[in-house]
Amino acid sequence: MNQTSAKNLNDTIAAKASPSGLGGIGIVRISGPRAGEVAAGLFKPADGSLDPARLPERKMLLGSAVDPASGQDIDEVLCVRFGAPRSYTTEEVIEIQCHAGPAVVEGILAAALSLGCRLARPGEFTQRAFLGGRLDLTQAEAVGQLIGAQSEIEARLALAGLAGGLGQQLGEVRAALTEAAAAVEAAIDFPEDVAEIAGPELIQRLERGALAPLERLLGERRRRRVWREGALVVICGRPNVGKSSLFNALLGQNRAIVTERAGTTRDSIEESTILGGVVCRLTDTAGLGVEADDLDRLGMEAARQRLSVADLALVVLDGSAELNGEDQQVLELTQGMRRLLAVNKQDLQAAWPPDGLGSKAAQSLRVSAKYGQGLDELSEAVGLALTGGEPEPGPGEAVASARQAEALGGALEAGRRAWEGLVADEVQPELISVDLGQALARLGEVDGQGAPDQVIEAVFENFCVGK
Ligand SMILES: Nc1nc2c(ncn2[C@@H]2O[C@H](COP(=O)(O)OP(=O)(O)O)[C@@H](O)[C@H]2O)c(=O)[nH]1
Ligand SMILES: [Mg+2]
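^ inputs. structure came back:
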């Protein structure tokens, strides 16, 4: 059992574990000490010799769900029992599979609630798995990530997190910090027996066992963040260069309106797609350049706003028309950013030579959005620019989330201060002890060991109900 307070663990919770709407199968999940009683109250096994209060474990059993108040059948169902602690939550769990009609699922859930269950909060099943010691906090977060995964890559990464590699590495970091903390405590308690607070060996172990691994994890996060979280790619350029055409072509669908009239796209449109292997939110923006009216101004403001938070600017230029002042403005606006230049309309006669951009050229590629030329190369270039060539993390190489990285950064900072204090050997041990304690606390925010309730709650708040 983790140290976190096990509040409300005595009650039995229930929720719909399948998504809302129409589908083949609906699932109601019940977890807690009274799960057996609930099963006895609402499940009638087809095999009359079975005791519904003590169903055999891990066996799909046919039967019917009945409304305990009226005794009427709600649906023909399958019921499976996972006995504690060999269940997802480590508690007694009953799962009832029914037909997915909303009335049926809600009816069974209502029956469970009438038998003394409470409706589960978002992520509460996984929270119980964590409190039961089955998952550490990094693994619990990976469950949420897996459920939210929109692409195969995201799912693979979440699965790597679920394997618990990050938690394991943090266990080693914790051991090194704890060892240093113990040595410092000894120096506080027995100052006359301890000549120096910590010997060079301990200082080295702190560096190698805690600080270096934390630095490595944070570096890994910086380098591979886009693999985990995807990237925001903003298409920009002056009106009529073919931004919306390129947006549609890269998505493989006609999402944005394309016209010969300049200034058709007023708002930013965003869609998810995979470019060069990276999950991208691709944004089509209004043309940047000369403002004709208020709508133009608003559109351009929206475009600038998206650009300011973009991971990559995809600057579109019209290769068939002379570059003008508006193009120059866009080039200047995106100068300091990570960017790629797409020189569009290569199917038409070129109005300027490929090297016409001089020193402004970051990397430029010739494409035709209209005729689908050069798009694969552009996709690859986008992926490469975003990942900097770092390969996708393999199995067991979990990349820290933003929340985790923030806490790891705090742990590193505090640990580094303690290390400096130990090296200088003139800092009061009490102060070093405080720093080490803080490093341990920040570490706990990541794997959940000794973490305060608010941290744990915050992690599970992002989950959906039923998981
Ligand atoms: N020939 C040619 N025309 C294009 C190409 N891409 C876009 N266009 C045309 O350029 C005009 C403006 O395109 P649009 O995508 O709306 O530009 P935006 O204002 O930058 O979004 C439309 O008439 C498109 O058909 C291209 O690769 N080749
Ligand atoms: Mg447009």
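The two ends are 20 Å apart (CA to CA). The pocket of guanosine-5'-diphosphate (ligand 1) is lined by residues 237, 239-245, 258-260, 264-265, 287, 344-345, 347-348, 368-370 (CB under 6 Å).
thumbs up if we can close this ticket
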